[in-house]
Automatic annotation (TrEMBL):
<dbReference type="InterPro" id="IPR007160">
    <property type="entry name" value="DUF362"/>
</dbReference>
<protein>
    <recommendedName>
        <fullName>DUF362 domain-containing protein</fullName>
    </recommendedName>
</protein>
<dbReference type="Pfam" id="PF04015">
    <property type="entry name" value="DUF362"/>
</dbReference>
<feature type="domain" description="DUF362">
    <location>
        <begin position="45"/>
        <end position="239"/>
    </location>
</feature>
Length: 312
């Protein structure tokens, strides 16, 4: 399903300075209610954090307290909640432990699962990629990206985080096979996003990653938590707040070329806090690096996964 046109799209923003803020739970509930994300009792919700890597995980992954706050709200609504991701290397539970999700989610009776069961998705540029049937079959998805710089795509937000619904090593293979062209790669990312129209988005931009990304960067004190029913709009809002332009960000260019709602800053409505409240002084982008994954890293990752499987 594709959403085209020039409709006004809402992005709800709350100002939260620290993850330990006593306002985090109530702000999360307010944001999700504002965008109409109020699941019915028994509704199956897939919560999809960013669990990109166990390296520098406390800074490059979605914060555990944000994920916990979202899950607590969903459980209060009576939803059936599954928290899952598909890191390129290693099980999601291992990355979640290093990122600090395991303990807070355990207090809610939840654990982090690995997305599996790949099913082919036809790509507009030709070929297919294996997207998780777990994600496709959920009643709704709550996507919880970590806002951060990205050495290949300039920024990583809601749209890029849904690439984590591609199963396991297939992401690395896609990077290696399609990484010769920003145009091809950004089209693939947008195809994955559009295959999941039942997703809404809660962006962790309290301490986004800057200087280097998507893994080896440093936290930047932005103090922002945002939500939207549109991944395009929530990303556009974040780019705008950070003073960025479409020609700097391949995925933003792709959204504009597809005439997607929320792709222009002027089309976004802010029902709560306003963008002018936030400053981006000292926010530093990552140096650009090639798109492809090294083939030996892919092979080593597959060997590690197979060894863990046969040890069960």
């Amino acid at each position: 399903m594709t959403y085209h046109g020039s409709m006004t799209t809402s992005v709800a923003i709350a100002r939260i300075q620290e993850y330990e803020s006593t306002l985090l739970d109530s702000a999360t509930a307010l944001l999700l209610e504002e965008i109409g994300f109020t699941p019915s009792p028994g509704e199956r919700i897939l919560v999809k954090p960013n669990l990109v890597s166990g390296t520098n995980a406390r800074h490059c992954c979605s914060n555990g307290l944000v994920v916990k706050a979202a899950c607590a709200y969903l459980l209060d609504c009576g939803a059936h909640v599954t928290v899952a991701d598909s890191p390129g290397y290693g099980p999601a539970s291992q990355v979640a432990r290093k990122a600090g999700l395991t303990e807070p989610l355990g207090k809610l009776g939840l654990s982090v699962q690995t997305l599996k069961r790949a099913t082919p998705l036809e790509l507009t540029g030709g070929g297919t990629i294996g997207i998780s049937q777990d994600a496709l079959e959920a009643d709704r998805i709550l996507n919880i990206p970590k806002l951060k710089v990205h050495c290949q795509m300039t920024m990583s937000g809601a749209v890029k985080n849904l690439f984590g619904c591609v199963v396991g090593f297939r992401k690395a293979v896609a990077h290696n096979r399609l990484g010769h062209s920003h145009d091809v790669f950004r089209s693939m990312l947008m195809d994955v996003y559009e295959a999941l129209p039942h997703a809404s988005h809660l962006m962790d931009a309290i301490h986004p990653l800057h200087k280097d990304g998507p893994i080896n960067g440093e936290p930047y004190e932005l103090g922002m938590l945002t939500a939207s029913s549109s991944g395009i709009a929530i990303d556009t809002a974040a780019y705008h707040i950070l003073g960025l332009q479409p020609d700097q960000i391949p995925l933003w260019q792709e959204a504009i070329s597809r005439d997607m709602d929320g792709a222009t800053a002027e089309s976004i409505r802010y029902p709560l806090e306003q963008p002018e409240l936030f400053t981006h002084d000292g926010f530093i982008l990552s140096e650009e690096r090639p798109l492809d994954f090294h083939i030996m890293r892919i092979l080593k990752g597959r060997v590690r996964s197979l060894l863990k499987y046969f040890k069960k």
